[in-house]
Amino acid sequence: MTQKKVWSRRQFSKAIISAQVLLASGALTFPIACKIDKKTQQNALLLESELETLKYAMDEIIPKSIKMPSASEVGGIDYILNILDELPDLLPVFQSTVSNLENISLAKSNKAFSEIEKDNRVAVLKYLEKDSPDLFGVLRNFTYESYYTSPKVYELIGYEPHPTGTMGPKMEPFDEKLLDRVKTMSPMYIKI
Amino acid sequence: MKSEDIDVLVIGAGAAGAALSWSLTERGAKVVCLEQGGWIDPSTFPSLKPDYETHLTRPRDFSLSPNMRKLKEDYPVTTAGENPPFIMMYNAVGGSTIHWQGIFPRFHPSDFKVKTLDGVADDWPISYKDLEPYYDFNDKMIGVSGLLGDPANPPRSPRQTPPLPIGKMGNTLVKGFEKLGWHWWVNDQGIISKAYKDRSPCMLHGKCMFGCPMGAKATTDRTYWPLAIEKGAEIRTWSRVKEVMVDKNGKAKGAIYFDKEGNTQEVKAKVVVVCCNGIGTPRLLLNSKSNLFPDGLGNSNGMVGKNFMVHPNLFVTGIFEEVMDSHIGPMGSPLFSQQFYETNENRDFVRGYMLYGERTFGPLSQSGSIPWGEKHHDSFGEIFPHQVGLTVLADDLPEETNTVTLDDTEVDSNGIAAAKVTYSLSENSKKMLDHAAQKATEALEAAGAKKVVVPAPSNMAHLMGTARMGTSDKNSVVDATNQVHGVPNLFVVDGSSFTTGAGVNPTSTIMALALRAADKIWERKMEW
After folding, report:
1. CB–CB of B56/B65 below 8 Å?
2. Residue B28 — very low, low, confident or very high, per pLDDT cuts 50/70/90?
3. Would A103 be classed as within a structural domain?
4. Band of residue A26 on the pLDDT scale cut at 50, 70, 90
5. Is residue B47 part of a domain?
6. How many CB pairs under 8 A join A and B?
7. String of DSSP letters for B49-79
8. Does B46 map to a domain?
9. Are B203 and A182 inside 8 Å of each other by CB?
10. pLDDT, tens digit, for every residue of B138-156?
11. Is the pLDDT of residue A21 over 60?
């Protein structure tokens, strides 16, 4: 958001008039609904090995099922990289999370997190959840965020986000007949 | 406007400040409003973006709480007590109407007389009849969707636009209420369903809390302020008031404020009106200390900041086999029940509560309670899109121990002491919530829910009671005209002036009070 900049009353008035016209027409539907800011791996803030660990962790938090893709399959890693670009203070948190996962994995199985069996990866994540709930919470929350803001997931779960600026959903007008019984009720409020 | 020309200085550009400023300007008063935030550019609203829900789930610029946003124009609010509330407000032209859902019920006549009727709290010094013309007038000014004929409320003037659609979830709740034979009605909403006064109708996107660029939701930056400015009112944005000044006779003479650059400015006026909400108002009064008012302005009886109310609630959820698509449609509640609103002597509490249908947010918010791992998708599929919300909004009676005070250590970006809220649920509220949880469950089950989830109590964004109106200067901060006791030209108009909180959303009452207070101030213009 850019609300920190000074927004004058005159600018505000002009903007709302033009915005109302555009929004009512649905003309903004396409550009707004399709605005997805993707980041490429070459801009990665994490090492390749760290990204590998992160991918395996995210895919245990939201795994693939018969109908649904895993977290990384819908761009989870790119999403995290975008977040790290936007909120660089989170970088050490993710680095620490990855480092912890690797350390726990080595201690338990003497192997890298990406090389252990699925059940063992889940066990490592559960250990992190119990031992470092704050770190695990950040990983879990951003995994969920990446997944449930993904247009691909929206399509699969039948969710149309209807951002303001697109045409809204179709809904039936209220049927006043539904109130026929209630209309016969005596006044329920205390008259003073 | 030069300082010596100002008749009325209004502090805060939200629901109350806007209505009052317009009313006084319309009559010819020269009004300046100081607002600590700015105009919000509608093109920046999160509602325009598919990831709008992230403003709910983590700190971002449009998060509901100032403690999450931490913008320059916000101030910290620390919390304490047995049930420290989640503090929600918005600081900008339009105030918290920028965020609100637009639910627009009125108080009942009984809400103004709880001492007389139930022997608790205090009566307001005014009645429903005193406010009724202002409720009607305000509705006409902003445009309300709804339907006449509700037996739970006194008759009111025709609604400006028809009810908004209630959708599948609304129709499902209707089934439950009808099966039980309970009262229900479509909600009055400050969201227009048809074009009204140059504003476009709601297009049913359902992102109202994340900004309504359409202008269908009655935010005061789109309703009262354009009219007030056209008539000559001036808003000084990015102007945070440090203190209200008084002269040697104890009359308010203006305010000292920080401008956008952080420089101290002084503005004088014949009348000062504080409209900073139930937390901001006591904070400002308590920060306005002088030789005449060493404990804060208007606080000679120690009542400023006491009796904080915030409407305890329960977000009860029913899970159905069928698809409910509760996220589709206007976010404001489609319908409500006041079956348990008035006091019933067969219950173990006094006063009552409202139940109202609550739309859900999108999948990100709903995933919050879903376990991670192998069962994730199955668990998510059980609740989405199968949930229907039935929210309990409980009457919150005033308790002197629930307070807003100044925080000892936290300050805002200008170094002004932050607010501290201390809050515990009363025994009456706890019993009321227990009853409401049972009844909400009953309604959802009657509607066909296979499972009902009753979470721990939380609270609304309704900040009330901390500079309350009263019949005596011993037990209140303002009189029946919203004038601060002992300071003839200082007024407080917002949720803080509520004597009791009722069991309904407060905005229509705040705006009606503001229009009434403007009349009372204008009636005394010869004293200026």
Report:
1. no
2. very high
3. yes
4. very low
5. no
6. 225
7. STTTTHHHHS--TT-S-HHHH--TT---EEE
8. no
9. no
10. 999 999 999 999 999 999 9
11. no
Report the alpha-carbon distance of residue B71 to residue B412 in Å, rounded. 10
Burial (CB < 10 A; 0-12, 13-18, 19+), residue A112, is middle
* Distance in Å, alpha carbon of A20 to nearest chain B alpha carbon: 5
Provide the pLDDT for residue B471: 87
Span between the terminal Cα atoms of chain A, in Å = 49
Per-residue pLDDT tens digits for B467-520: 999 989 999 999 999 999 999 999 999 999 999 999 999 999 999 999 999 999
> In sequence order, which residues have a C-beta less than 8 Å from that of residue B234 and are 6 or more positions away?
B1, B31, B32, B33
% of chain B beyond a pLDDT of 70: 100
User: Among partner residues B72, B151, B380, which is closest to A182 by beta-carbon distance?
Assistant: B151
The pLDDT of residue B1 is: 73
Q: Which structural domain range is residue A88 located in?
A: 41-157
Q: What is the model's pLDDT at position B323?
A: 96
Residue B367 structural domain: 3-41+56-527
Question: Which amino acid is residue B201, in one-letter code?
Answer: P
**What is the model's pLDDT at position A8?**
60
Select from B171, B183, B342 the Cβ nearest to the Cβ of A185: B183
Q: Which residues contact B351 (CB under 8 A, 6 or more apart)?
A: B114, B118, B120, B342, B343, B395, B397, B428, B432, B503
The ipTM of this complex is 0.94
Q: Does residue A94 fall inside a structural domain?
A: yes
Do the Cβ atoms of B204 and A67 come within 8 Å?
no
pTM, entire model: 0.93
Other Cβ atoms less than 10 A from the Cβ of A172: the count is 10
Q: Is residue A11 part of a domain?
A: no
Q: Would you say residue A19 lies in a domain?
A: no
Q: Which residue of A has its CA nearest to B72?
A: A4
For chain B, report the end-to-end CA distance as a whole number of angstroms: 18
* Total domains, chain B: 1
CATH number at residue B109: 3.50.50.60
**Residue A19 in 3-state DSSP?**
helix
In a domain, B282, yes or no: yes
Q: How many CB atoms lie within 10 A of CB B30?
A: 18
**Tokens found for residue A28:** 């903004």
> Average per-residue pLDDT in chain B?
96
Contact B254, B242 (CB under 8 A): no
- Number of domains comprising chain A: 1
Residues of chain B positioned with their CB less than 8 A from the CB of A70? none
The DSSP-derived string for B220-261 is TTTTHHHHHHHTT-EEE-S-EEEEEEE-TTS-EEEEEEE-TT
Does residue B50 lie in a domain region? Answer: no
The type of residue at B499 is: T
